[in-house]
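ZP: hey, is the fe (iii) ion complex queued? I don't see it on the tracker
AM: it wasn't, my bad. submitting now with these inputs:
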Amino acid sequence: MERIGVYGGTFNPPHIGHIRGAKYAIDALQLEQLLLVPTCIAPHKAMPENSPTPDQRAEMLEISKGENMQVCDMELRRGGASYTYETLEALSQMYPGKELVLLMGTDMFLSFLTWKEPRKILNMASLGVMYRGDQDELEQIAQQKETLEKLGAKVYLVENPVTAISSTQLRRLLLFRCADSFLSREVGQYIQYHNLYGVAKNYRHLPMEALEQVVVSLLKPNRVAHVLGCRDTAVALAKRWGADPTDAARAGLLHDVTKALDGHLQLTLCNEYGIVLGEFSKKYTKTLHALTGSLVAERIFGENERVVDAIRSHTTGKPAMNTLEKILYVADYMEPNRDFPGVEKLRQLAYTDLDKALKLGLEMTVAMLQKNNQEISPASAEALAFLEQAGV
Ligand code: FE
Ligand code: FE
């Protein structure tokens, strides 16, 4: 029986991960055709400014689709929330006598029984699981496969070797102007032409409130409190130590602006910005967000040199730090959401002796890295040696 693949998603925007994954599924499952089905985005979900319309999402798919792929806008035309079983009912009628294979990622597969009408779905379609994952994940998948097969499911497992990137991450990269390598040229041009996702917007020198809004949209939700706490603490310390409170606020807001990008995306950003990295940075990508954050602060947000420098040294420190740099380093460490042994001492020191607070922060970092058998950044070691020599 000939097989038709069904691949749903918001495709907001469609990127090369989608299309390559789709190509891969066509080959691996020998699909005669693959239907790309853009889903409706729930109307109650507040969409950020410059989001594409449903038609624009379908258009972007249309221009990026590959051979044997077809865009099916049935859910968009239906409007409102669509359930997969409803879509499959319609497709079963359109393609009588064909085997429909519903493609999905691991998460969706593992939660399959919580979907609306899972048994109806299994009666109409086979499941194609695109997994990438470790041994743990494989065991969960195997277990779920067994469970579903008892319910009469036909399950195909397809290892997906395509680089994972989510549309959420891609929207961040678009704002940072470094998404090109993840988009087909046509989709990249379409996004520019229609100014989607704020790509043509000028973010330089934003007023404080507008800056906060953009920054919050770029963070993972669980990091927002930390960043706002860091900003408030940096402002308080700036007032105490005679630094510019506005600089402190902006540095605090922006210090983790790229933190949501994982290691390979940090490297992508450096690459796109033409930055050559040292060995330590390539190996320990966790500290890279300080560098990439400073680059974004400078190039995208047009921040001044003082703010940019403070962001650059906020994770590792460096020798001969200026007041704002010390303030941001310490504020990041002690903001109200931080909770670890010694934080109270640090909070006290920060208002009585900023250098000692800085040194304590560096020492605690070094101790923690040693305990976890991790390498200490050369910049931190130099910063400590510098304070030592200055008699702090
Ligand atoms: Fe940070
Ligand atoms: Fe931070």
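AM: back. Residues 224-241 form the longest helix (18 residues).
ZP: great, adding it to the tracker
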